[in-house]
Automatic annotation (TrEMBL):
Pfam families: DUF4442. Coiled coil: none annotated. This is DUF4442 domain-containing protein. It comes from Microbulbifer okhotskensis. The lineage of its organism: Bacteria, Pseudomonadati, Pseudomonadota, Gammaproteobacteria, Cellvibrionales.
Length: 161
């Protein structure tokens, strides 16, 4: 099977529509529709490619905590979304994944809009087993305010050819 033709539906949508503001908005809505819990943070994808995904999260009242900063769980949501989509668009379609653990570090107070970035440069060599997707969440000044290492279990799809 040709690796390119076996890519994720999300990557296909991004390649087709990600070149415009409306297209990026539409892809973000489609992903959040497929996994509805992510709608709570109103994510906006700004980059989707094998080995790299970037998701923006606006600081607004519904994602803040009692001290007015972005809530830790909203950042966990953004990190899981970035890590999951990064893995999804990087895997051969004969494989599937599910998160099985997450370790997080709160590094600074999140007082601005945020950007969750997941990079996995060696994606071509991904195979079945546990994979750790590292996600940095950055404030508007480029400072990392949150970091997550998400363990994903990669397995073969049933009836995969």
């Amino acid at each position: 099977m040709d690796y390119q033709s076996s890519k994720s539906p999300v990557l296909h949508l991004w390649k087709r529509f990600g070149g415009s503001v409306f297209g990026r908005w539409a892809v973000s809505k489609v992903v959040a529709f497929k996994a509805p819990y992510f709608r709570s943070i109103k994510p906006r994808f700004t980059e989707v490619a094998p080995g790299r995904v970037e998701v923006c999260l606006g600081k607004r009242w519904s994602v803040t905590n009692h001290i007015g900063t972005v809530h830790a769980i909203a950042m966990c949501n953004a990190a899981e979304l970035a890590g999951g989509v990064c893995l999804d668009v990087s895997l051969d379609r004969r494989l599937r994944w599910i998160p099985v653990g997450m370790e997080v570090k709160y590094l600074k107070m999140a007082k601005t809009d945020l950007r969750a970035v997941c990079e996995y440069p060696g994606y071509e060599s991904l195979e079945a087993g546990d994979v750790v997707m590292s996600v940095g969440v950055y404030n508007a000044h480029g400072e990392e305010v949150f970091h997550a290492d998400i363990t994903m279990r990669v397995t073969s799809r049933p009836n995969a050819k």
